[in-house]
Amino acid sequence: MSDVLDLAGVTVTRGRTVLLASVNWQVAAGERWVVLGANGAGKSTLLSIAAARLHPSRGEVRILGETLGRVDVFELRPRIGLASNALAQQVPGSEPVRDVVVTAAYGVTGRWNESYAEDDLARAAELLGQMGVGKLAARPYGTLSDGERKRVQIARALMTDPELLLLDEPAGGLDLGGREDLLRRLTGLIEDPAAPTAVLVTHHVEEIPAGVTHALLLRKGRVVAAGPVADVLTSEQLSVTFGLPLSVSRRAGRFYARAL
Ligand SMILES: Nc1ncnc2c1ncn2[C@@H]1O[C@H](COP(=O)(O)OP(=O)(O)OP(=O)(O)O)[C@@H](O)[C@H]1O
């Protein structure tokens, strides 16, 4: 199977700070990954690289068969669906929800045109429906709850029918009901064989949806472990990742952790 992501020796530095240190990582088509690590471990930096939004200081990055630095990123980015808080912050609060989603097809945030293709509007409506926020299509984005916004962001990320889907803390900041609802929807999405290869980032094992196949653990910019979830999400490796003794259990495909 061809690699969707192939990172070799990827290092990111800012001044004397090392954000990522010699990261090697391969993601094959059809895999569903979680990237897990404590605050400041480098997860969002890694995701920005995978999204072709950031170039490494050193190392080679191949995304969907293209090498970063040798490809026009404006051609590559529409093939990648990204949902992140950083991107969401660029959305004007007055923007109607359907426009937040449909503008992804045009690679912009914020309404830029008076008319969109009917097909694009229909697709945006379908995705909002799938995420359970179809009724909010006409509402200004700024009036939505955090949970509703997360679902709109995911619908936007899916709008271009991407080959790679990247979700940065999709369940972050949600209340229990909102989290569980979102995780159920994410499980439905990633268990669909037609869904794109996916990578989601979180710092809580409880926020990993059932159906995730692989995990990468990051600590201080370094990979602690990467591979199938059963091999990687162990008490030992998560204790190293978070720097405290943890006991991790798995029930019905979900993970739970507590300090020892
Ligand atoms: N321009 C910069 N200069 C110096 N340090 C930076 C810069 N940008 C980010 N960092 C640091 O790099 C580290 C990694 O940041 P990153 O956002 O990738 O972590 P993260 O794992 O996503 O964290 P969180 O879970 O808190 O979102 C952090 O300690 C951050 O403070």
TrEMBL record:
<dbReference type="GO" id="GO:0022857">
    <property type="term" value="F:transmembrane transporter activity"/>
</dbReference>
<dbReference type="InterPro" id="IPR003439">
    <property type="entry name" value="ABC_transporter-like_ATP-bd"/>
</dbReference>
<dbReference type="InterPro" id="IPR027417">
    <property type="entry name" value="P-loop_NTPase"/>
</dbReference>
<keyword id="KW-0547">Nucleotide-binding</keyword>
<dbReference type="GO" id="GO:0005524">
    <property type="term" value="F:ATP binding"/>
</dbReference>
<dbReference type="Pfam" id="PF00005">
    <property type="entry name" value="ABC_tran"/>
</dbReference>
<dbReference type="InterPro" id="IPR015856">
    <property type="entry name" value="ABC_transpr_CbiO/EcfA_su"/>
</dbReference>
<protein>
    <submittedName>
        <fullName>Iron complex transport system ATP-binding protein</fullName>
    </submittedName>
</protein>
<dbReference type="GO" id="GO:0016887">
    <property type="term" value="F:ATP hydrolysis activity"/>
</dbReference>
<feature type="domain" description="ABC transporter">
    <location>
        <begin position="5"/>
        <end position="245"/>
    </location>
</feature>
<keyword id="KW-0813">Transport</keyword>
<dbReference type="GO" id="GO:0016020">
    <property type="term" value="C:membrane"/>
</dbReference>
<dbReference type="InterPro" id="IPR003593">
    <property type="entry name" value="AAA+_ATPase"/>
</dbReference>
<keyword id="KW-0067">ATP-binding</keyword>
